[in-house]
Amino acid sequence: QLQLVEFGGGLVQPGGSLRLSCVGSGFTLDYYDIGWFRQAPGKEREGVSCISRSDGSTYYADSVKGRFTISRDNAKNTVYLQMNSLKPEDTAVYYCAADHWARCAVAGTYDYWGQGTQVIVSS
Predict the structure, then answer these.
(1) What secondary structure does DSSP assign to the chain, as a single string?
(2) Could you read off the pLDDT of 46-84 as tens digits, one per residue?
């Protein structure tokens, strides 16, 4: 059974950092395009970042550019989202998603999803 599990969410003060992990079970993540998405209450799911399986190229939404970094650790079958300089507007449930042929940050093109991890940025 193919599963994605996210770890690392929590409560952090504005300006703080968190690192989210997306661990694959039953499949090898470096053969997949991986995306990170988030959904805040009352808002649509937003593509935050993605990393390509073919050349490792990355994408960031304008709202997180310069603050978030996506990376892979193939030995651990894990994709990370390092989030720095967090703002209250980053508060959301964060999801990772995987697909062989995804359109970066387009939710409908990813077949496999994790259950999400909550991030709250508040003082």
Answers:
(1) --EEEEE--EEE-TT--EEEEEEEESS-GGGSEEEEEEE-TTS--EEEEEE-TTT--EEE-TTTTTTEEEEEEGGGTEEEEEE-S--GGG-EEEEEEEETTPPTT-GGG--EE---EEEEE--
(2) 999 999 998 899 999 999 999 999 999 999 999 999 999
